[in-house]
Batch of 2 targets.
Target 1
Amino acid sequence: MPPESPAARETLGVAHNGIALTEPLVLQSGVTLAGVTVAYQTWGTLNADKSNGVLVCHALTGDQYVIGTHPVTGKPGWWNDLVGPGKIIDTDRFFVICANVLGGCMGSTGPKDINPATGKAWGLSFPVITIPDMVQAQAKLLDHLGVRRLFCVIGGSMGAMQVLEWAHRYPERVFAAVPIAGSYRHSAQNIAFHEVGRQAIMADPDWCQGAYADEGKIPKRGLAVARMAAHITYLSETALHRKFGRRLQDRDALTYGFDADFQVESYLRHQGYTFVDRFDANSYLYITRAMDYFDLAAENNGVLAEAFTGTKVRFCLISFSSDWLFPTVESRAIVRALNAVAANVSFVEVVSDKGHDAFLLDEPEFHQTLQGFIDGSADAHGLPARRKP
Amino acid sequence: MPPESPAARETLGVAHNGIALTEPLVLQSGVTLAGVTVAYQTWGTLNADKSNGVLVCHALTGDQYVIGTHPVTGKPGWWNDLVGPGKIIDTDRFFVICANVLGGCMGSTGPKDINPATGKAWGLSFPVITIPDMVQAQAKLLDHLGVRRLFCVIGGSMGAMQVLEWAHRYPERVFAAVPIAGSYRHSAQNIAFHEVGRQAIMADPDWCQGAYADEGKIPKRGLAVARMAAHITYLSETALHRKFGRRLQDRDALTYGFDADFQVESYLRHQGYTFVDRFDANSYLYITRAMDYFDLAAENNGVLAEAFTGTKVRFCLISFSSDWLFPTVESRAIVRALNAVAANVSFVEVVSDKGHDAFLLDEPEFHQTLQGFIDGSADAHGLPARRKP
């Protein structure tokens, strides 16, 4: 019997590809979680050496649908610009894997699932999960897929946290690591923004102390407000000004009311109220908590460098100059720690006015940096060179 | 019969000093608002020349209780550091006035008051008010107090918007103007943050479409979330880091739950849930809307300088280096416009890591700058010199 077996999970009417873990996960909190499913997608083919695996780690509200058409929203995948045949993360060269994080709501086990002990949705009785827990689940998936060692692990924002955790916890399983627009620990300001989002969800009476599924309700208003607040932090002031300024929405003059007079208001409302159709409120609580708890220095006696002692992983860190959620200073702190242990590290601060969201967007300097690092690392890893167009 | 008559208004069990305007206000929206009360406090004595009046304009959630003990919260006034006998805004020298803004909830007419036409609380039927409307009401108060021309009008944040409007609309009534940490128009990002706050309030079922007073309810949860989101923007990342970092609240280790593990979470919750005891949710909607609508350039053919053509007002602008809500670039834009009309203007960016809130705090460079400007202007205005301690 294989240690893991295929499992299909359904969310919002969509069946997700996944595996059911045979062994329970022992979480960082000490809690044992049995019956875990890891939902995932892959693209490309694992080579004979099993050396061309690329693990993509998604951000807070992302999921495993990196490219193609998202099965729930019908929109393009969140990294269509970067991943695909002939693209920087070339699915003709690499075997690309992305798993929905533990605690998520796109097929991997999370608070919306049924707690086998009660027959009801977990809700707030689901154990708090952490970034290391997410990474542990991904490692089980790689075992199942036969990928002992990854060519590369890459991700932005919360994805970058997972990348760092991978390099720390499984250095022998990672050849190259690319944490983008990330941090080794969540700042006070970022915890504060997450707390506002959680409070908005918990303030919604339809949240029902987390048991909304049992009550047949959805805390849409609270989740929408949480998303709106978060969304502001993903953009720079400059980007907001360029996109919207003080322009009015489908009107010539102020209405002297509380409708969305300004385009930026209309945009935010749209962001908030479309989000609730694809995301679970409790998952939002759990995943933001995982980010808040992440502190790779604290896990290593308060010394970040100790997380990487003796590492042979090749690192490429990328930050964006207008990102105020995960500013460049956060990436620099990681670079300094890696330098302190003589790690192989390159670092680029991409000049961009697009804010944190730049890692999802078509930013030429970002893409060029990444292309250079991926191609050079593939060469160093003994993978065939990229087919030039 | 005097054009205005004394009126006492009660809020939260506290009687506020005020005047009832005899004439209706014609608002910027074109709506006529009758039966307006302006609640206010004064300190010091108007001199024989009636030339020593200082109007203090409060910020979004401030009020007329600038100094002393706040009658509702029991806490010190919001500018106790700056205003008082022997202080920079010296109540032994100046006749200091502060009015609760129109639309507020500390005694001036606002959405929580009874609409005489219906006998019910105004709620959302209260007309949208603007910064110019607030200033118009203040001008009526000054008429009542016999202050034809102010020595100085001063305020931070939304107070700075009122100061700019005063200098624009009533230049002959202002000798010196001090807009601190302000802007001539609310940015897209700031509108976005306000919109999140409004959406949080409106998402609370206890808001009852604004008619919560009739229903005997208070949308506490929504208002608390709005306050929490706003509060983050008042502090700098550095200040949050220094005050809280990732320190835990009354515990030695993470609890792996959704209690306030981190001090910054506990602080934010406290800020949110104490605010609702002193502020009205609909007032929050109306006053944020007034700030969003403010655009002194748009009021002047899109050219800010035209707002100040030929002005004889002496200006002192102050910004704070770590203020990301009203960053220095906003004050510089005003300085440039004033320079373009050859106005008398001085400008200081105070180096501070305390964020927007610095204007409320004991910042020595800020206070020194202000002391110099006030004393020099008092001299130029023919007021007696400050008694040196």
Target 2
Amino acid sequence: MKGKVAVIGAGMIKFGELFEKSFDDMIEEAYLNCLKSVDNGIDPKEIEAGWLGSARGMSGAALSMPTSLWDIGISRNENGCATGSDAFRNACFAVASGVIDVALVCGVEKMRDASGGLIAIAAMADIWRARARTMPAFFALRGTRHMHLYGSTREHLAMVSVKNHHNGSLYPYAHYRFETTIDKVLKAPIVSWPLGLYDCCPVTDGACCVLITSAEKAKKYTDTPVYVAGSGLSVDSWMRHNDENLSGFPASVIAGKQAYKMAGLEPKDIKVAEIHDCFTITEILDYEDLGFAKKGEGHLLLEEGIVELSGSLPMNPSGGLIAKGHPIGASGVAQIAEIYEQLRGTAGKVQISDVDVGLQHNIGLGRGATGSVSCVHILKR
Amino acid sequence: MKGKVAVIGAGMIKFGELFEKSFDDMIEEAYLNCLKSVDNGIDPKEIEAGWLGSARGMSGAALSMPTSLWDIGISRNENGCATGSDAFRNACFAVASGVIDVALVCGVEKMRDASGGLIAIAAMADIWRARARTMPAFFALRGTRHMHLYGSTREHLAMVSVKNHHNGSLYPYAHYRFETTIDKVLKAPIVSWPLGLYDCCPVTDGACCVLITSAEKAKKYTDTPVYVAGSGLSVDSWMRHNDENLSGFPASVIAGKQAYKMAGLEPKDIKVAEIHDCFTITEILDYEDLGFAKKGEGHLLLEEGIVELSGSLPMNPSGGLIAKGHPIGASGVAQIAEIYEQLRGTAGKVQISDVDVGLQHNIGLGRGATGSVSCVHILKR
């Protein structure tokens, strides 16, 4: 797959509490923005297949209505919170196989208005509640464990929140566009200790589309395509007796290694990354799981400022899930879109200078936490 | 993709009202049967990735628990009633891309006991009921239209039911294993005219697994692999004003053409087929949509006996959805499994002699019937 697939367009919508926009409205807006983003233009008739990433069913036909893309094949993927990334990965396989030349990947979720059908997520939440483990509580356990083993503190968590809110304040599509401070984060109401209100991503509506093509076709659409250099996906077991130290996600380590191996690259080659920060602790664990920091030293990157916009390895320039929001199916696709913009130099106020390789990373919980899913892509200019 | 992917194993479980078996139980049994089916044996450690086809969420991790396949990537596909076929197709892309050498595809559905989470299907049913269109009512419309335009009768529908129940009576994994008669079918209670009780597939629990590999690796596992020659997927619009004559499914025509084109084959080359017969009328429409009969002449194949086990083009030797049952995610994978057995000559009492090319066809309804999905695969010895 390495180098065989290129991203040639990306379209975001402003994430937020979009009560005035339907599931279809969001897809349509992201789709039209995506079409418009293609440098040399694209005729929708050139799109040969689609992949819909959404926790909401039913079927790929849900992508056809708002895009008028009938009479082509549309698959639907769902893989917990890594849904959008899984859809992107499957679309890349199809293009790399030589069967499909131009594909649309759409991630979308209506989170704030469940009447339209966010039944899958509601169901998941039910399973979790029945086991007395809400999402914040689950991740909080990882936080206390990291603190106990490695000496991280609530201040380190707060530094993730302050950084990502700062980035989000500069990113036009973010749900939350305000700055915060260490003091405010620490004094916010506790959701599940050590996670306070500003340590948690919001509940957000959103959609994002990207267009991918075979490497050969890419130059027709743009002089600056971005290539898919690596892809990884893994499931791990969250059964307590299988877990080495409860801190970090084995699936992320494996998915990362798969992606690095395919790309022939190492963590030190990555210049910018969009990583899964559903909670502040998650981002610190990601640093370690993805090889940006040694085990138990993730929080030190924050002390050193390395992961800020001005640092040597900026993490979540878009504000991440913490500030941008986390509309399940859209989250992974939006991460791809942001890395695409960064590598093309079109990321606006959050542009990192001189970046040629970027990484995207997306975690999902599986089936009442008996397993976690992690998906990683490496993009290259 | 043509010829790059091979099926090297398949494992069914007996479909039925499996109140005594959980979602996980069904997967485990199909998985173990699939492993055992591989001629030269396979170590589960050789499986590099999995695809789960199920209308039930959440995430690919649901396949890990009953198979102990952790630390590999598992995607989940859902595409209405074509869910299992879509999972198979995406797995084939991954193998054809060269990234994955050995993949497991599992289709599974718990239909008779919704307490465990068949919420997605329940949701779909809700949408349908709200629009006063149940599944039988929707397909019945197609039936009356076909009768009006082309002169087919309830007797023709009954011939599909009698044929498929006969086949099912010989197929060990079928839900219903009894014969019926034209008279019984015609006198059965009407569900939605012209469809009576025996014109409708049952509500069935089931699971099925298949193992696929790259063509190069296949010979390691068996001397008689079956190759994926063609694959097609399409969505069409079921908006009434877009529909030419309401009889037939444009998505099936398109998906069929895609698959025939990839395979370099024509309908006349197909020796056996497993096609989507959720209702008897559907099978007649399939004959026309897939090119086995001219438009408006599908029912004539039944008069001529061509589609019986002893005919020149046997359709649904396994009993089809009508007799075998239709556990959403499992249905498409089970069709692939049956064609695999037919082409290897291991289909037992329903074996068709001298078959080298087979076709699989699976329809799904999308999003409250605004679109339909159709998936076709052609397998070759």
